[in-house]
Amino acid sequence: MDTVAALAGVPASEAELLAVAHRERIFSGAAWSVGNLDGPVRRGLLGTLSWGGPPVRPDTLWDWASVTKPVVALATMWLVERGALGLAETVAEHLPEYADGELGRVTVEQLLTHTSGLPGRQPLWRRHPERESLLAAVRALPLRTAPGTAVDYSSVGFIVLGQVAEAASGMPLDRLVAIAVTEPVGMPDTGFRPAARDRDRCAATEHCPWRGEVVQGSVHDENAVVLGGVAGHAGLFGTLDDLEGLALAVLSGGGTVTGEWLAARTLALMGRGHTDRLNLRRGLGWQGRDPHGSPFGDLSSPESYGHTGFTGTSIWLDPTLGRYAVLLTNRVHPSRDTPGMETVRRRFHNLAAAR
């Protein structure tokens, strides 16, 4: 049956929409929250960690996939605020091994806004199954466009950004993210590489032919696997509570964070459109609301922003409405070819914005 036809009807809530999607086997499990500056208004859990597996629980760990990117961007801006990094500084200034290639002249801001000129999805893992080989392949990638001239969503760009952040901070990326984001915001269950004891509370993702198993408790993204599970573009796992807390922290301008974190003006700068003269709207690590085909639906404000993840995750922030929405699913289970998530995501955000 056609996906749109299968989702036909008049759902009165996010819960009803997601229940229909679950019946259509678009994902085995989901967790969601919609709220405002006072906190959650509607939230819930649905389904199982895998088809036939145990139920989704409040402490379920979800593979956030590319929702990792804005978290790494927040850590990068933490470094900017502390004078360890500048947006106009180039990759080569922090990573001398890039100096002889085209990537060396790309700036931190261009990495954050996906205007580096680096091409989009690159399955480097297929030919480079070892970390150093993959990173060498990244350094050798030719730029598709001149830096700063077009938005081209690039996970490779955030792999490089993660390396820059490590060099600027003098610490591994996972530790930087903990110090700069998850610890001050209060996200105790969020991190890279879940411990073996936590595997059973992770939502399953794809049956991966490369690994010969259903992936559960390790990162779905293959390039991130080769990089050891810690990368700037993917690798974070976390709970609904934690992503909800991050949404509130950013939406409130840091007002929900106890103690010192990022300044409200820094958070506002990150969400602002930095590429409005180009083909797509992007902030610093955030995806702005494009005029057509936005995953954040039809009713969100032009100033809204967020990020999606390939595994079926998303975070959406609307400063005009004073509202956020978080959606966590395992839509790649058991296959990334399962259709329907794009429709579900847009409708979910329409419901979140309208009520």
TrEMBL record:
MF (Gene Ontology): hydrolase activity
Protein name: Esterase
Keywords: Hydrolase
Pfam families hit by this protein: Beta-lactamase
The keyword Cytoplasm appears for this protein: no
Cytoplasm recorded as keyword: no
Lineage summary: Bacteria, Bacillati, Actinomycetota, Actinomycetes, Micromonosporales
Domain Beta-lactamase-related residue range list: 52-342
